[in-house]
Amino acid sequence: MRPAGRAEIDSLYFDYPHFPFVRPPELDGEVRRHRVAIVGAGPVGVTAALELARHGIDCVVLDDKATVNDGSRAICLSRHSLEILQQLGVDQRFAAKGLGWTRGRTYFRDREIYRFEMPHSDQERFLPMVNLQQQYIEQFLIDQAAESERVELRWQSAVSGVSQDADGVTLTVSTPEGDYALACDYLLAADGARSVVRKALGLALHGEAYEGRYVIADVRLESGFPTERRAFFHSAALPEATILVHKQPDDIWRIDYQLGPDEDPEAAVREEVIRDRVELILREVMQETGDWELEWWSLYKAHTLALDDYRHGRVLFIGDSAHLVPIFGVRGLNNGLADAVNAAWKLAWVLRGRAPERLLDSYTPERRGATLDVFANAGKSTRFMTPPSRGHHLMRDAALALALDNDYASPFADPRQVTPYTYAESPLTLADRDAFAAGPRPGAPLINRRLGDDDFLLDHLGEGFGLLLFGEAGPELAAALGEHPQLAVLHLGVEDSTLGRALPGDAALFAAYGAEPGSAYLVRPDRHLVARWKRPTAADLNDALITALGGA
């Protein structure tokens, strides 16, 4: 919603693009079959399209809108998501525009009771979290997709029907110039919480909805306060409301505040009510004195809902079409981007004949497992932010009151920010055989390390499977690598290599990975680890590659 007198896309800071309808060949009777269709051109859908393109797969993206989504919506990108964007070649625009941050503060009764600091060092290219409005996120991804010869974007194209058989999926698409049928081998549903694809297949999300409601408001305000996440409990101005505050680019501040249990949601989102509440928060809670302007607002309710299975035949659900997660801990968008990459690289390898179709069977256990992990952590955060009962409320307030004068109690207020999921139980992951003192365990994403000036380990990953090889390899493994030309070898700690790309690697890098000369890490296209060994054999490598491709 926007203030009276302003159109839906009349923004104080963002110029909304217009995406014209382009008549598709199917409307003129041409019969086409697409390898992959994606419904939804939000961040998750376009990320999937770019990942497919990265692996050489053409796709068509359908969206009923003529511009990007309105309002800031999802604003926090994690380091792991920025590493995804780096692989897609679009990270620089995000890093240049976004506001990075490492810390947050929690206040109780207007006193600071806790300050958290997310782990960060000069070994990382990206900060732990970057704030950027969703309009920019979508714009940057769409611009990148528009430059790709492998991605076709079809705007003002609403999917109104979905059917599938053993060979593929057929969509009914409604456009300003008529309806047509679109055929594809596989469909990625990225059409959000009200997914048309999900409803067309008769599927439902299962889980729970939380009682609390939040108003989300964007305001423009010039302020010198640093980019930090702030949470306020029982402020004098709004003693019954939990308040969250984030700084965004262009002097835009995101304010989330909880409605009281007896407040009428319809009345709460009237413009005059929003203005009064925001004024109170800015002046009395945030202690801001400058002029401000209202940009946009919306109403939010927390859910933990998910499909029982993220794959249904030739349809894979990604992002909010597959699950709804609470905003606390900034897990929604970041979880969706991981869905997109997971589904897309597996589809690409199947479509290119590099893996059997059963590789797709690993999508649900991996990404639904990640969702359930999000539920466990975000559910705790949600119950803390918005206690669902009087008992929870009393316990929350007791913990906060204890933290006023006792440092040991302060971590009760830790928001538990999003962390990438480890696919330890995945059918594509091999458990450790050797003991490692450090380093990512199988199923986890690789950790970054600085190799030089503006040069990091993850900069050198390719589009396919990779092998981190530490120091000199044994003769048997060296011979085996010649049998896997599709495997990109990053040879660390050597000056020259006939096995792959020679990269610097000092004692600190070896120690970070718990490696010794001859150690190796096998990594998937999405940077998650398949297996690691202190002294791998040719059979170890062969078995791991077979496992990682679904038992090919």
TrEMBL record:
The keyword Flavoprotein applies. The keyword Isomerase does not apply. NCBIfam families: PRK08132.1. Residues 35-371 form the FAD-binding domain. It comes from the Bacteria. Its cofactor is FAD. InterPro entries: FAD-bd (IPR002938), FAD/NAD-bd_sf (IPR036188), RIFMO-like (IPR050641). Keywords: FAD, Flavoprotein, Monooxygenase, Oxidoreductase. This is FAD-dependent monooxygenase. GO terms for molecular function: monooxygenase activity. Pfam families: FAD_binding_3.
